[in-house]
Amino acid sequence: MSKCANRCPEIIPESDPVDQARRRLLAGAAAMSAVALAPGVMLYSAGSAEARKLGTAASSKVRWGILIDVSQCPDGCTECVTACKTENGWEGKGPAGTNPEWIRNVALKDKKTGAAKSVPMMCQHCEEPPCVDVCPTGASFKRADGIVLVDKHICIGCRYCMMACPFAARSFVHEPASNQKPHAPRGKGTVEACTMCVHRVDADGTPACVEACNKADNRSMTFGDLNNPNSDIAKAVGRHLATRIRADLGLGQGVLYTGL
Asked: Which CATH number is 17-258's, of 3.40.630.30, 3.20.10.10, 3.40.50.10860, 3.30.70.20?
């Protein structure tokens, strides 16, 4: 059996109508106009005003990030998850395993000592995002300021990005979306993930998860510009031994952790 039998996309005969439709779709995507956000990163325009606006506020001088001090996360706390659901309207009521999770609590356990800790996990907003590399239409893209997003207007739901993400940070919308927010468009058959509350960031605000954490007086989350040495997050990274989940992959995530 071929080595790629369990990994490669299914090969469909040239005459298959599904294949012909797919070829027309990808050919159309390749012909779309594109806007450069950063070297090697393109935002493809599909006639959507929202898609064209996504990169207007981004600057390569800024690198937005979130620092999470796991030692300050109370056991069982879900403030960040609840805030994200409320802000972006993604809470699902579908069958088990089909609901979206823009942010979730992941249990980490030390195999030697047995020590366990719950860690908030969301899109890591990588400097070198695998999801962007594998997307066939350009729907997955990275802004110049490091925020990784999905253009729902050109996402075809192939889920290649979900398979490529080492952090299982993306969700597929299985059911018709309800409780839609103007700043967070959703749609059945598309992929979605944490946007770092880009609508807030572009308005000089703070992601909902960070705001909720601080209001709860947990103060385990810090948001800011990693490129600005005078920012709170840059100072905190300088004071503590910050790390990235799966740093060995060399993805340069914008989400960092301390206290692991």
From this structure: 3.30.70.20
